[in-house]
Write a structure and sequence with these properties.
Number of helices: 4
Radius of gyration: 12 Å
Helix content: 40-55%
Shape: globular
Structural class: mainly alpha
Length: 86
């Protein structure tokens, strides 16, 4: 995992108060997969399209920590290829 992905992992785990295994982080290659993983760990039923508190908190992390614009943050956005995270 690159530095931005590690920072993302630490931020998400702190924000939602849980820990994901490295293997699970490596499987979560899109924003949607991360959203579903966070929902699993926090006991929240994921919605489609996502519009709940978990989704909104994730979007804020990407906007505030990584300076991304809201229109970049799609459910199917891939961290490396689409969001250019290393």
């Amino acid at each position: 995992m690159g530095l931005e992905i590690v920072e993302l992992a630490l931020t998400v785990e702190e924000e939602f108060d849980f820990t994901m295994e490295d293997a699970e982080w490596q499987e979560a290659r899109t924003l949607g997969a991360l959203y579903e993983a966070v929902c699993r760990h926090t006991g929240v039923e994921p919605t489609r399209p996502p519009h709940d508190e978990v989704w909104n908190r994730l979007l804020l992390i990407f906007q505030e920590r990584f300076g991304m614009k809201r229109d970049q943050l799609r459910y199917d956005a891939r961290f490396i290829e689409d969001l250019r995270m290393d």
